[in-house]
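Each lists chain and fold; for instance:
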Amino acid sequence: MTTHQPRAPQRSRPASPLRLRLRPSPRRVFHPPRRPALLPLAAVWLLTRAGMLWLLAHDTLGIGGVGREVSVLYEHWYRQLADGVLPVGETSWQYPPGAALVLLAPGLLPGLTYFQGFVALALAADAAVTLALARARGGDSGMGAWYWTGGLALLLHLPLARYDVLVTALAVGGLLALRAGHARVGGVLAGLGALVKGWPLLTLAGTPRGTVTRRSWTSLLVTLAGGAAALALVFPHAWGFLRHQGGRGAQVESLGGSVLAAAHLMGWPGRVVYRYGAYEFTGPYAGAVAGASLVLTGAAVLWLLLWRVRSLHWSEATPADAALMAVLLVTVTSRVLSPQYLVWLLGLAAVCLTCRNTTQRPVAALLLPAAALSALVYPVLYVDVLTVTPLGVAVLVVRNLLLVVAALVSCRALWEESAPDVLRVP
């Protein structure tokens, strides 16, 4: 009988240091969303803003005098507002009473002239928007911040001499607060923006049904009511500006204005006049064109209501996408459509681009050439626009056609994303 000796247990060979280094870790490593490199973004922002400041300091491009609205008109209003008087008797005052707070702010900055203080506040708001977009939750490439930084520069120095950047900062902050789960903060910021300019009210058009809508809209209404009451106490006749709105005609830069400009080249006898703080067309059928703009604006509001009622699917990107669609529709159908309105659209498009699943990427792409053409409309070729030359009309018509196409693309994209199949746009 053969006896088997038990085998001595083999000692495991110690792993070499090289093998230990190559062995994968059993734990999953969490990779946070990528944030844009702030140093390159800051460098490009500083470079582009330095160029915008240089253009504003010289202010001779095209028709020139872009900064005159701040140094003459805004400062004139500031002196009245400092005495507690709103310039509601002036037809050029077309703003809600909250604008008074923005126009008063530059005069409170120590050591700066009114003009310098205004530009400093515009740059501060611009920088705040850039940083907020760069740090937005859900963004993985910084596309929104880069889009805003480059897109705003396409408008040349105009954004630094208008207060639309400050209003856009409130709208952008409100949308980003909504996405971060702070519905009440989003409503308050939208309400403050509406008190200053009006259009930020539309940024809540796409809030999800339920708690978010209830909280955000309640905060907005409380802010509007409280702010309006406080401003009415400080400034009597705070809402007197509304009586100037009804008499406005089709401004030369508007969609209706481009139609009348093209008609003028073909023999229409209308002319351009200065009224209500802007250049408008007068002549046969000019009033009908302005009225048609109001009808189109009403139709745009009905479309927004229809989309809101019929939409079934909301994503993280829907509130920002709907805000861009709403403001774009109202802007395109406006009787005004000044070049600085592109500041609003660029800011909202930048918020959309911070979402991976946004439907508005084609719209954002269309807004960039529209912004560049807006800078040609004013100030570069503004003399041609006002004198209705073929060059001025061509630039204006192409700019407005781009905005119309952007509005239609925006509506279709968002409808197909969120509306029922039975009502899809063909």
